[in-house]
Design a protein that fits this description.
It contains five helices and no strands. With about 80 residues, it is an all-alpha fold. The chain has a domain of about 45 residues.
Amino acid sequence: MTALVPAFICIAAGRVRAKARGVKFGRKPKLNPFQREQALARLSTGETQAEVARTYGVDRATISRLASPLPFEADAALPGN
């Protein structure tokens, strides 16, 4: 008789094996590094997020995430931290 192994253990083991092979997880970025750099430069010249997003064919939220500081940097800037 074989013992039943919980599914999460099998999934975790599979993820570990995949990472060891160099498999990348997650969604592919919409903009490559050059496009991100260009978008930030255009924002700094005064173009709106909507205008920049339209030219790259992405949602305004994608450009907004580029323009906002990283979450950990934002936490450090809060008073009292």
